[in-house]
Amino acid sequence: KLNAQSSDETVKYDIIIVSLGARYQMYCSNISRTFLVDPPKAISDTYDILLGMQNACIEAMVPQRRLSTVYYAAIDYLKSSGNGGLVKSLPKNLGFSMGLDFRDSALVLSPKNQVMIRSGMLFNLSVGFSGVALSDSDKSSVGNKSAVKSVKTYALQVADMVVVTSKSAEVLTKHAKALTDISYVIGGDSDESSDEGGNASHDDAAYAKSLANQEDKYPSGKRASARLAKNNTGAQDTQEGASERERRQVELMSRKNEERIRELARANAKNKGADKESDLAEELITYNRARDYPDYVMPNQVKVDMKNECVILPIFGNPIPFHISTIKNVVLPDPDLATYLRINFYTAGSTIGKDTPVNMGKLILKHAPYASFIRELTFRSLDSHNLTQAFRQISELRKRVRQREIREQEEANLVKQEKLVRTKNERVPRLSDLTLRPVFSGRKTQGNIEAHTNGLRFISTRGEIVDVMYSNIKHAIYQPCENEIMVLIHFHLRNPIMLGKKRQKDIQVFTEVVDASLQVDAGRRSMYDPDEMDDEQRERQLRKKLNQAFKEFCRKVESTAKKNGYSLEFDIPYRDLGFNGTPHNQMVFVQPTLNCLVNVTDTPFFVTDLSEVDHVHFERVTFMSKTFDVVLINKDFSKQPWRVDMIPNSDKDAIQDWLTDMELSYTEGPMNLNWKQIMLTCAGDDRFYMNTEEDEITQKEAGWEFLRMFGRDNNSDDDDDEDDDAYSEEAEADGGGESEADSDSNSEESEFDSESEDESDFDADQDLEEQGMDWEDMEKAAMADDRRRKQSGRDEEEDARLKAKRGNGSQSRGSSKRTSSGSGRRVEKRRRR
Predict the structure, then answer these.
(1) Are residues 57 and 70 in contact, defined by beta-carbon separation less than 8 angstroms?
(2) 309 Rama class: left (phi>0) / alpha (psi -120 to 50) / beta
(3) Phi, psi (deg, nearest 5) at residue 607
(4) From CA 647, how far away is CA 653, in angstroms rounded?
(5) 106-115, 440-449, 690-699, 770-779 — which is least confidently predicted?
(6) Which pairs count as long-range contacts for 823-827, CB under 8 Å and 24+ apart, including other chains?
(7) Residue 230: how many CB atoms within 10 A of its CB?
(8) DSSP states of 514-534 as a string?
(9) Residues pairing with 644 in the sheet
């Protein structure tokens, strides 16, 4: 029941309701949670219904509605979800207003209260059920020794502080209340099956239990090492964890595929026709008519119009303008008797590189099917002055246009930020003596940072200003100086901002933890040197002071942003889950946060938003390699994946556990893959996340399942085994009429097959051994093989000589034997005569 009072009785491990109240500056607050121990399915289902009913009540708490609508919203939810029988288990009210008084009796969430809800009201929404019956069939799934076995009726309660805003209601108490967060299973299944026979005595059970303990302790009848037993247990736990992780990954990948199909469908419906305007090419126009030509144009000279960005070339005595964007390059060979100027143009069929103007590439694709292109033009002059001047002007104009286009591309994705509103008549949070990264124009930038109404402002000692708006901050990271030499605050932005002449998406301020005055001398200090101990003590105090200052600044920034209607929270990296890797060019320590995978200590920064990661693939996962690589695939297939290389194998299980907890799917493979080609293939496949081809009948691997090292199931193997079994049965049925000769021949063939299989197995093992050797072992094996060949060569020569000698002797002996045998036959004939 919900109105139970605290007492000295021991709490049973069944259903525990905990209520906690607090008072701060005379204002009251309250929260209630229900914890379930060994809950049957009926109780878990009722708890889920309770959470759904609470959400329905929160949605009903809107200004200009009566308080009674909240109670009726709960009743409507129960009836609409098919749980109308729980209406009688509802309490008389679902909470009350709270403030300086713990309970305002005039503002109770009851079915008869007709008071209107207003913006700014604060309620303690307390929903629950009491007196819910629990049948014996519902308790059959729990153990015999579980305390739930004795429960006949139960109660559930969840209470939160809810404030009514101008449009909706907001929950202030953020403590977890999902079923997975409040449910605990501590009862074992062994108690249920302990009395299966029904006639076994207590002594027999105790004796059997003691024997089982002895077998577990000494399985072979001999004493074993405790360390080895611990290692075996750890290996078994690791194997079980890996199998459980693999099972969860299969379910996670199938669910992710379905979610991605829905996301892509919504994105396609939203962006339908949006890319057509961006694909249009803009025609190049230099002059509208010939009279607009400059006055200095001559019929047989190359002229450059810097204003209109074109080159006027003489063709058959007529000046023809060419836009500078059409020129690929210009070449001026060393002059001999005459000076030559060769101009190459962009044409259809040529490679469109990254230096090609974007609009020119679109024009080539547009006009390539039916237009003729000029590939190059060469001009010759005996006077080198004019062509040399034209060459310089064309090169300079191409450089200006290229720089302008690069600047426009960098600023194309820039979002215009709102103007910073400075806080007045109030002390603003400030941190002093900070260093900014990235720096302005290659120089170290130092200054102060302040938190204002809608953003932060960094002011350098040279007067340079950088504004970061709260609405543009995607992730804010605070990293204390534990084992690093600096304490820092890092901002990962939603949209890049211009810092100097470059756009940046990561802004960081930090302070190095180094004492201002350090004594540097050539002599070594003793570990008991008082000065050394004082320096270490000062460094520890400085670390603690800086950590506290930065932490306090982050707390003030969060409160300032929240007070002005912005949501900003600082994440702290989990150092215990960190690992060493190479995301760029050097080995760094990569750490996960709540929403990212980061390394913000070294530059260039590595910040990967986990919400943008579609899948994770492990490369070079073999028994021979000591390290592996991790590839983080972006949901946007037009972007290349993030990489972290050279991660030690000892961190693989921990990383995979973390990915599974973060609900990110992963696969493993023994080699590095060509991700550029893979991403192009995936981007062109409209049915990438579906498990069927376009005919919707042919099965295929959905999503990233094709990256799995092993198959998802072994159905085909089972089918093959069944076919083999059926074939063997037929062979046994037909084998009665076979002759002995056939059986002998079959036995000989089987012996031959077994010999060949043994040889093939030997060759395969030898190949595996060769694959597992390193360079030194391979060199030693090669030297030994050379020595063996030389020795075998000498042995073959000696064998040849010996065979030659033996051949001569055998021939002489053979002739004597033939003569003696012939004389013997003649003597025998004479005797017969």
Answers:
(1) yes
(2) left
(3) -130, 115
(4) 12
(5) 770-779
(6) none
(7) 10
(8) --S-----SSPPPTT-HHHHH
(9) 630
DSSP per residue over 772-815, as a string?
Answer: H--HHHHHHHHHHHHHHHHHHHHHHHHHHHHHHHHHHHHHHHHH
Tokens linked to 603: 């530059």
Q: Which amino acid is at 410?
A: E
183-198 average pLDDT score: 52
Angle formed at CA 303 by CA 300 and CA 304, multiple of 5 degrees: 165
Q: String of b and e for 199-214 (b: at least 16 CB within 10 Å)?
A: eeeeeeeeeeeeeeee
Structure tokens at 259: 């979610």
Distance CA 241, CA 237 (A): 6
What would the DSSP string read from start to end of 231-278? HHHHHHHHHHHHHHHHHHHHHHHHHHHHHHHHHHHHHHHHSTTTHHHH
pLDDT of residue 788: 78
Q: What's the token pair of residue 183?
A: 């449910």
pLDDT of 764 > 90? The answer is no
Q: How confident is the model at residue 383 (pLDDT cuts 50, 70, 90)?
A: confident
Q: What amino acid is encoded at 9 in this protein?
A: E
CA-CA-CA-CA dihedral for 356, 357, 362, 367, to nearest 10: -70
Identify whether the C-beta of residue 329 lies closer than 8 Å to the C-beta of residue 341. Answer: no
Q: Considering only 297-301, 582-586, 623-627, which range has the smallest mean pLDDT?
A: 297-301
pLDDT at 234: 54
Kindly state the greatest CA–CA separation across the chain.
155
Residue 91 CA to residue 17 CA, distance in Å, equals: 15
How far is residue 290's CA from residue 328's CA, in Å, rounded to a whole number?
25
Q: Count other C-beta atoms under 10 Å from residue 320's C-beta.
A: 14
pLDDT digits (tens, 9 = 90+) for 230-284: 455 555 566 677 788 888 888 888 888 888 888 888 877 766 555 545 567 788 8
User: What pLDDT, in 10s, does the model give residues 34-57?
Assistant: 998 888 888 988 999 999 999 999
CB distance 170 to 62 below 8 Å: no
pLDDT value of residue 76: 92
Nearest to 48 by CA among 185, 173, 187, 180: 180
Question: Are 496 and 504 spatial neighbours (Cβ–Cβ below 8 Å)?
Answer: yes
CA pair distance 242, 143, nearest whole angstrom: 28
| Region of residue 213 (phi > 0: left; psi between -120 and 50: alpha; otherwise: beta) | alpha
The structure's pTM equals 0.53
Whether the per-residue pLDDT at 177 is higher than 60: the answer is: yes
Average pLDDT over residues 466-475: 93
One-letter identity of residue 664: L
